[in-house]
Amino acid sequence: MKHEWKKHEKELYSIKKEPSVITVPRQKFIMISGKGNPNDADFSERVGALYSLAYSIKMRHKAFCSNNPDHNKQFEYLDYTVFPLEGIWTSAGNSPLDKDSFEYTIMIRQPDFITQEMFEAAYSVVEKKKPHPFLKEVVFDTMEDGLCVQMLHIGLFDDEPASFALMDAFSKDNGLERISHTHREIYLNDARKVQPAKYQTILRYQVRKGGVQ
């Protein structure tokens, strides 16, 4: 059986173009951090390192299940669709639109059954067959966002402030307080293959319960 995140985890990825509250559980990721403008080559290279590992992990898991049918019962899924790219963003500058001051951690989620050992095995293969300058900076870790406000943003990344304004108003109306200026973005389509007006990005930030306004 194949795990497809669009089909099996709709509560996390099939959201509407209006703010809502969600509690995000602990999840596993491969991730890499960086600074600067996401339009620069440095960012693209980091994304490339992530995807090299993500597909190596997936293919090794699929091959193991195919070659060892007696062990398949330990896995709920024998194959899976690679999860979308995500990013955690903040800014070291005075303006949230100053892209050169961005600080980020980009990541690709891993299924719960992927382990540190499976990551390390895939890493060794990629390191030998497809060496990459940023590969050594990729780590395997877990994150738990907990209580969050989120919404689906359609269109240019530069137009995101309008969606964040809606999220801020929703949070205030529902007695929720944003914890920090850091936020998460989940990119549901490939920006290289669609027109900017059709970009689909989940915007999400952590909140806590405050006083009812």
From TrEMBL:
Pfam families per UniProt: GyrI-like
Stored InterPro entries: GyrI-like, GyrI-like_CCH_Lin2189-like, Reg_factor_effector_dom_sf
Record-annotated GyrI-like small molecule binding domain positions: 18-201
The protein, known as: GyrI-like small molecule binding domain-containing protein
